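Hi V.,

Quick status before I head out on leave. The structure for the redesign project is tokenized and pasted below; the design run finished overnight.
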């Protein structure tokens, strides 16, 4: 581990177990901390009023005021005193759910009982480094000026939803806490995991593993590795993914597909922070950040007894849910332009732009396959395009078919109105011209009087739209 930065740091340890206070405080003092202890949150507040602390470690369950309530008070103190206190919660069996809530409310990390001093020191050290890095670099969260840097070269977005996720990632990336990323297939979960890994500052590798692609009988050896002679065919030893990821990040993709038998073993590794190769009794310390991902609601899998509840709370400390592309349409065109450049470079093409009509088709498509589908569409378009601009003809028929279906739906509305029978002898007079004029007017306003976009949204040619504009005098007054 890198040289710690805990020298002369003031630390307050809060727990109602006096024996734990004595043992842990002595060990922390040996490692260079200046330690005060409190048996209650109320006593901790008295210490806090006499001066701030660099680190507060607090049990969640205390007599009187809880650890969560103390966390809230510390956050208020930090705001008034312009401080940035590291707050780490101690959890016992059955309080993981509350620990997750504490992280969401601003705690930096959590540790489990019984307290392992070495793991605790590592947790404190990383949390202090994160706070220090945040002060120096400030992450440029507000203005997003680092979005063109190498860290974000593949993380393209314009939507406020993705900007909010990125800001949260920046603020929590240095934490050792486990991360769960959810979202539909193709939304970019692995790309986000790579961003978290890079921002974490960990020196090791980013090691991805798709659990749905590994047969159950091979999963244990893939994750934990094996020694020579551990089983028939094991002519030499092999590192597992956990060992390869030590010092870095292990990305467990499709975590919901992990068999229950392996879920038990993963839970034990996360709890004990150590593992062994198959065929060996030697324990290997776990020093990898664990990021899990799934495209199904794990809460439902827990209810259906397909996923362990205790493992769910262990991996779901920090949760990032990526919305589907259809719910963040602002990201479609930036992503499309990015893929055009990417595949132009690969295919040695010189395509300058995507035409307005093609853009309109992309923006109005629902993308059931999300970003992955958009990338495939643009790759195909770049390959077949022979001009300097991607046109609708270069896009798959699925896009134009969907637009045509929408146009037919609008047409059916007119047909229905036109075919309404007389009702109780009263003649219903339908002014089709008036309805058509209103429809075109609304479309023009929605598209800021851009004729190409308006025509595409109505499913008619631009020439026909111009004729209708002249007929109804729907000229822009701008």
């Amino acid at each position: 581990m890198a040289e710690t930065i805990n020298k002369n740091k003031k630390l307050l340890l809060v727990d109602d177990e006096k024996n734990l206070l004595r043992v842990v405080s002595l060990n922390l003092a040996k490692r260079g901390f200046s330690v005060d202890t409190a048996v209650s949150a109320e006593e901790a507040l008295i210490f806090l009023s006499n001066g701030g602390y660099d680190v507060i470690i607090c049990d969640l369950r205390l007599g009187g005021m809880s650890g969560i309530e103390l966390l809230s008070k510390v956050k208020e103190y930090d705001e008034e005193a312009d401080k940035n206190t590291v707050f780490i919660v101690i959890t016992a069996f059955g309080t993981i759910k509350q620990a997750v809530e504490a992280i969401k409310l601003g705690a930096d990390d959590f540790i489990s009982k019984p307290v392992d001093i070495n793991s605790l020191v590592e947790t404190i050290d990383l949390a202090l480094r994160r706070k220090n890095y945040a002060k120096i670099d400030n992450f440029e969260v507000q203005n997003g000026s680092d979005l063109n840097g190498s860290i974000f070269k593949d993380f393209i977005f314009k939507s406020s939803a993705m900007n909010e996720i990125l800001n949260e990632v920046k603020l929590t990336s240095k934490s050792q806490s486990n991360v769960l990323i959810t979202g539909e297939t193709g939304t970019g979960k692995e790309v986000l995991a790579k961003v978290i890994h890079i921002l974490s500052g960990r020196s090791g590798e980013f090691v991805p593993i798709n659990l749905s692609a590994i047969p159950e009988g091979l999963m244990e050896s893939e994750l934990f590795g094996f020694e020579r002679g551990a089983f028939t065919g094991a002519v030499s030893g092999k590192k597992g993914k956990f060992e390869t990821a030590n010092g870095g990040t292990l990305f467990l993709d499709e975590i919901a597909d992990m068999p229950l038998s392996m879920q038990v073993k993963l839970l034990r590794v996360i709890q004990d922070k150590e593992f062994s190769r198959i065929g060996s009794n030697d324990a290997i310390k776990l020093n990898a950040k664990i990021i899990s991902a799934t495209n199904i609601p794990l809460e439902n899998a827990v209810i259906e007894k397909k996923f362990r509840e205790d493992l769910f709370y262990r991996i779901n400390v920090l949760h990032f849910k990526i919305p589907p592309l259809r719910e963040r349409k602002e990201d479609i065109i930036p992503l499309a332009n990015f893929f055009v450049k990417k595949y132009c470079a690969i295919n040695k093409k010189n395509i300058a732009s995507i035409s307005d009509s093609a853009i309109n088709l992309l923006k109005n498509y629902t993308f059931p396959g999300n970003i992955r589908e958009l990338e495939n569409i643009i790759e195909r378009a770049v390959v077949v395009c022979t001009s300097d601009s991607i046109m609708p003809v270069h896009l798959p028929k699925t896009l134009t078919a969907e637009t045509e279906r929408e146009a037919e739906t609008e047409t059916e509305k007119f047909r229905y109105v036109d075919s309404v029978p007389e009702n109780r002898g009263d003649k219903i007079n339908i002014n089709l011209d008036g309805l058509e004029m209103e429809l075109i007017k609304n479309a023009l306003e929605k598209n800021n009087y851009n004729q190409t976009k308006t025509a595409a949204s109505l499913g008619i040619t631009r020439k026909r739209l111009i004729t209708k504009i002249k007929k109804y005098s729907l000229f822009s007054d701008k």
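Above is the designed sequence. The mean pLDDT is 83.

G. will cover questions while I'm gone.

Best,
W.
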